[in-house]
Task: inverse folding
């Protein structure tokens, strides 16, 4: 494939106050290709891996933390925003169209690294031999701190747009609904991990459950791919949250409600936010309901269907291990059915090729049992 001629990357920092104390920031990358490009449906795995490789090549210690650190990841990445269409079993990108990709930092350590990285970016993002030239990098969510969010103007109503499918885990299943306690629990987990002023989770969430209301919404649900393995039923659209009048008896919680709403664009909502899910923006928009390319939706549905079959066969064993195996088998077999090589699947799942090959055989055998 011909390489794209290198050009100087445009950095947009005007109007930003990116101080060394900044703990939160959001970047937007503008990407282009000079010819038709085909991507596999789970390409966000490649974006995730490419970003972590950028960290590893410049700060191995931070890379190890992002791989093996605490459960809450101090960054998010989006899927590509732009004209992607299904082309057979792949996704097609068009030449000379701009595709936008978003990366955020949620801790001072990551935000400091992003500031340094931004001054010496590579010329392109390479997704499995699909080079996308970086033509610009813009600050879209201003550098700030958790304390500044907490001390900012109180907002009694918070409208949020969920641009990519968003879902929560509840009793071992996906919950594709913007239930206030789940939404704000999602933000509070990040806050309590990275802010210097943690909040008592049980007390605050009980207050949210009692006094935070959905004042309007426009949402739709869709099945999508979920990170490296499995599929998720998520929602997209817009939701507005407000406060009951009794909520103001706890002014400190009203302040936290407002701060968490402003945190949402930085940290995303729900799970799998480091693989493109849960992308969130402030404000109301009736256009926020997003379409998912057919090929991605079909693969997600097939993975979910196979996962249910394999879980059903493992009812007697039960437990998290059985669910994990069912999801892994389903992902491997569904992607193989879509024409992907087992070698590529093994690389994405970071599993030995022979193990993936064995799992594929076992999954096919299990289907014949059905």
Result:
């Amino acid at each position: 494939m011909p390489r794209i001629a290198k050009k100087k990357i445009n950095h947009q920092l005007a109007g930003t106050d990116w101080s060394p104390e900044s703990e939160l920031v959001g970047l937007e990358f503008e990407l282009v290709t000079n010819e038709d490009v085909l991507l596999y449906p789970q390409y966000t795995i490649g974006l995730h891996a490419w970003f972590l490789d950028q960290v590893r090549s410049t700060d191995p210690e931070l890379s190890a933390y992002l791989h093996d650190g605490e459960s809450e990841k101090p960054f998010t990445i989006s899927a590509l925003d732009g004209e992607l269409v299904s082309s057979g079993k792949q996704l097609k990108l068009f030449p000379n169209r701009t595709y936008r990709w978003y990366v955020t930092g949620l801790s001072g350590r990551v935000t400091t690294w992003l500031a340094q990285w931004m001054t010496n970016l590579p010329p392109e993002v390479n997704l499995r031999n699909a080079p996308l030239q970086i033509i610009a990098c813009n600050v879209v969510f201003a550098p700030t701190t958790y304390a500044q969010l907490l001390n900012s103007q109180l907002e009694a109503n918070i409208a949020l747009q969920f641009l990519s499918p968003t879902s929560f885990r509840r009793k071992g299943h996906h919950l594709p609904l913007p239930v206030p306690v789940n939404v704000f629990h999602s933000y509070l987990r990040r806050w309590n991990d990275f802010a210097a002023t943690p909040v008592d989770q049980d007390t605050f969430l009980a207050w949210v459950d009692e006094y935070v209301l959905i004042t309007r919404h426009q949402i739709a649900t869709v099945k999508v791919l979920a990170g490296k393995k499995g599929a998720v039923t998520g929602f997209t659209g817009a939701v507005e949250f407000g406060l009951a009048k009794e909520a103001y008896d706890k002014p400190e919680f009203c302040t936290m409600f407002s701060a968490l709403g402003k945190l949402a664009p930085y940290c995303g909502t729900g799970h799998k936010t480091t693989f493109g899910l849960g992308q969130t923006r402030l404000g109301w928009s009736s256009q926020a309901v997003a379409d998912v390319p057919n090929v991605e939706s079909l693969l997600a549905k097939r993975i979910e269907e196979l996962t249910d079959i394999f879980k059903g066969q493992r009812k007697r064993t039960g437990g998290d291990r059985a669910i994990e195996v069912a999801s892994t088998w389903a992902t491997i077999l569904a992607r193989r059915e879509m024409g992907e090589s087992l070698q590529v699947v093994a690389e994405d799942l970071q599993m030995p090729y022979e193990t993936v090959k064995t799992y594929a055989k076992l999954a096919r055998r299990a289907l014949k049992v059905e």
